[in-house]
Amino acid sequence: MPLSFQHSCSAPIGIRQSEVEAKLQSLLARAIAWAQRHQHPIIASLSFPLDQFAPFHLFAVLQHLELSHRFFWLHGQECLIGAGTSLVLEAQGADVHRILKQKWEAAREQVVALGDEQVTDVLPTFLGGFRFDPQARHTSSAWRHFPDGALILPQVVFRSTQGGCSLTINHSITPEDTVLTCESAIHLVLDRIFQISASLAQDALFRSGMVSRDVDTSQEEPWKQLVSDAVRAIRQGTMSKVVLARSMRVNARSQSSFDIPSLVYRLHQQAPLSYIFAMQFQETAFVGATPEQLVAAQAGKIRTMSLAGSALRGQTVETDACIGQALLTSRKDREEHAIVTDTIMQQLGPLCNTLHRPVLPQLLRLPTIQHLQTPIWGQLRQGYSLLDAVSALHPTPAVGGLPSDGARTYIRTYEQMDRGWYAGPLGWIDLNGDGEFVVALRSGLVQKQTATLFAGCGIVANSQPESEYQETCLKFQVMLNAIQGQS
Ligand SMILES: C=C(O[C@@H]1C=C(C(=O)O)C=C[C@H]1O)C(=O)O
Question: Does 335 participate in catalysis according to the annotation?
Answer without folding.
Answer: no
